[in-house]
Amino acid sequence: MKSLFHNIHEECGIFGVYGHPEAANLVYLGLYALQHRGQEGAGICSSDGAQFHLEKSIGLVADIFTEKRIKRLPGSMAIGHNRYSTAGGGGLKNVQPLVANYALGTIAIAHNGNLINAERLKDELETDGAIFQSTSDSEVILHLIARSKEDNPHYRIAEALRSVSGAYSLLFLRESELIAVRDPMGVRPLSIGQVDGAYVIASETCAFDLIGAEYLRDVEPGEMVIINHNGLQSVRILQSIRKAFCVFEFIYFARPDSYIFNHICVNTMRKEFGRQLAKESLVDADIVIPVPDSGVPAAIGFAEHGKLHFDFGLIRNHYIGRTFIEPKQSIRHFGVKIKLNPVRDLLKDKKVIVVDDSIVRGTTSKKIVKMIREVGGAKEVHMRICSPPTVGPCFYGIDTPTRQELIASSHITEEIRKYITADTLSYLSIEGLKSIIPNPENYCTACFDNNYPIQFPEDRLEQMELVFA
Ligand code: AMP
């Protein structure tokens, strides 16, 4: 299958500013706060009202953007993008923002999400003579905008987006305005804030906190927000028949200090998931420990409900970059040890409950259980997972492997327990999960129930069968 669909996962963070003399600097800070959403590369594009300026590289935000580079980004408006590391790579050419010249001027795009009909659109555009500079699905949107016959850029964007299907939270930068759009189901988060009279737009509100911006509201599903010298204007460009907010943002992806999907605190959700999990599957134990960092709030909720002792029995090394190189003549395989190490004093001869957010392939859990038993000296290891079994791959922007690689798609819980060698294993029930989330009908839970809210185009069904097989 082509790389566009299978190797490129647009699981990213985006940030935009309009009307601030330090626009590029604010975007830099915003991207820094959103680093968890993508670590492969980052870019910032600014406009000084006439000219566009672009700086992008592979690597982490703080390493890429030196003072010198930020100075090369003048103007009072800018957008930025953090790109998630991918299996297929793609390198610098796929790092956003992507910038294009077209009949009405220049336009830059930053995209979080994943288009499910990009491959077909790309084929059609290429047959028609289009030349693509990247393998990113986001470039398809630029081509559609460039080919539209509308004489108003907003109409062009709306027309382009009526052709695409999938998940997209988008930022566009034009010479003198910032535009934000969210897909009609609102799969990925996107919020509007204000600082020093300037508007800011971010994937998550934790980015507002860092720059002292006030969180105003979310960009609504199907809404286009246009920010220019007239202020903020809202246009409904796409009909929102149903919402499909990504539940996995709460479980794993978003930062706990963010408020997403209409002011819901991620940390509170995770703690409640943990409480619910304890209601469903409490077991006699001496200590509850999280798999840091994603398991921490849930483990606290679990321990609180179960009136059990909570502690950090696993310590995470936060300084592992993508660049860590295992010695060539490796005496030992580092595996998960490079990232996590047990605190023996807390675990020795104890009955331990370990809380993690999810099991994907099962490899991490297996190594953690082994480590807690063998290095930590635990007597019993009870694994508690704060989400239902992951049975379906995500096609809307979360980087999950194929269905065949998801251990829960072909194994029952008891088989997984045996595989990870835990004494007991329990997942949060889907009913339990839905009992915690306000208006659960507004969420996409496809990774847990195969109920995909965005239908695949006819010509993709065969491919999907292969993925689902
Ligand atoms: P696995 O070893 O494949 O079962 O992976 C499970 C671990 O990966 C858990 O500790 C999760 O916190 C983490 N995880 C879950 N989803 C993702 C994702 N989309 N990207 C990176 N890590 C993830």
UniProtKB/TrEMBL annotation:
Cofactor: [4Fe-4S] cluster; Mg(2+)
SUPFAM superfamilies: N-terminal nucleophile aminohydrolases (Ntn hydrolases), PRTase-like
UniProt-annotated catalytic positions: C12 (nucleophile)
All copies of domain Glutamine amidotransferase type-2, residue ranges: 12-230
Sequence positions that bind [4Fe-4S] cluster: C246, C394, C444, C447
Catalytic reaction annotation: 5-phospho-beta-D-ribosylamine + L-glutamate + diphosphate = 5-phospho-alpha-D-ribose 1-diphosphate + L-glutamine + H2O
Binding site for Mg(2+): S294, D356, D357
UniProt KW keywords: 4Fe-4S, Glutamine amidotransferase, Glycosyltransferase, Iron, Iron-sulfur, Magnesium, Metal-binding, Purine biosynthesis, Transferase
Pathway: Purine metabolism; IMP biosynthesis via de novo pathway; N(1)-(5-phospho-D-ribosyl)glycinamide from 5-phospho-alpha-D-ribose 1-diphosphate: step 1/2
Superkingdom: Bacteria
Details of cofactor binding: Binds 1 [4Fe-4S] cluster per subunit. Binds 1 Mg(2+) ion per subunit.
Record GO biological process: 'de novo' IMP biosynthetic process; purine nucleobase biosynthetic process
Top enzyme class: transferase
Lipid biosynthesis among keywords: no
EC number in record: 2.4.2.14
A Pfam family: GATase_7
Purpose: Catalyzes the formation of phosphoribosylamine from phosphoribosylpyrophosphate (PRPP) and glutamine.
Family in the record: In the C-terminal section; belongs to the purine/pyrimidine phosphoribosyltransferase family.
Protein name in the entry: Amidophosphoribosyltransferase
Organism: Dissulfurispira thermophila
Lineage: Bacteria, Pseudomonadati, Nitrospirota, Thermodesulfovibrionia, Thermodesulfovibrionales
Gene behind the chain: purF
